Amino acid sequence: MTRMDIKLSQCFVAVDDHDQALAFYRDVLGMEVRNDVGFEGMRWVTVGSPSQPDVDIVLEPPLADPNASPADRQAVAELLAKGLLRGVIFQTDDCDATFERIRAAGGEVLQEPMDQPYGVRDCAFRDPSGNMLRFTQSRKR
Q1: Is 2 domain-assigned?
Q2: Number of folded domains in the chain?
Q3: Where would I find the VOC domain in this sequence (predicted)?
Q4: Per residue in 68-106, pLDDT tens?
Q5: Which residues contact 2 (CB under 8 A, 6 or more apart)?
Q6: Domain range for residue 18?
Q7: How far is Cα 102 from Cα 69, in angstroms, rounded to an integer?
Q8: Which among 25, 78, 98, 111 has most CB atoms closer than 10 A?
């Protein structure tokens, strides 16, 4: 059997304010803006790390489905506001420096840098919409 070559292309992060999210992901995290599209009253902004040109993070409206009911939209917006939707884990060469840069820019700290038993040093923040973002650094064993 031939092995398939599958790679991550895009991931989606729900945001409730694209301008705030864009300022955070672009200006604080250093992501480049790759696309900014509006459709049917909604907006999608694609950002990504300059060092990973083939991986996109799409900042999308909560429950970006035009057929979703108002009740479902409200439920997802409430989960987002509580920070209960899944986040993104980024890899960094220097967890402590990354932490200081994001904290100095006003990032909401969830966890200061610490060594984890599973072999990484990491820290965590919330983005302006409440999503958890972790920044991990591999520890040399």
Answers
A1: no
A2: 1
A3: 7-138
A4: 888 998 898 888 888 888 789 999 999 999 999 999 999
A5: none
A6: 10-138
A7: 36
A8: 25
Instruction: Give, as one character, the DSSP assignment of residue 141.
Output: -
| Beta bridge partner(s), residue 35 | 46
CA–CA distance from 126 to each of 2, 21, 49, 63, 66 (Å)? 41, 11, 18, 19, 27
Structure token pair of residue 83: 């920070």
Is 1 part of any domain? no
Alpha-carbon 17 to chain mean position = 14
More confident residue, 67 or 53: 53
Is the residue at 128 inside a domain?
Answer: yes
Q: How far apart are CA 4 and CA 123, in angstroms?
A: 34
Other residues' Cβ atoms within 10 Å of the Cβ of residue 119:
11
What CATH number does the domain containing 119 carry? 3.10.180.10
Write down the pLDDT at residue 70.
87
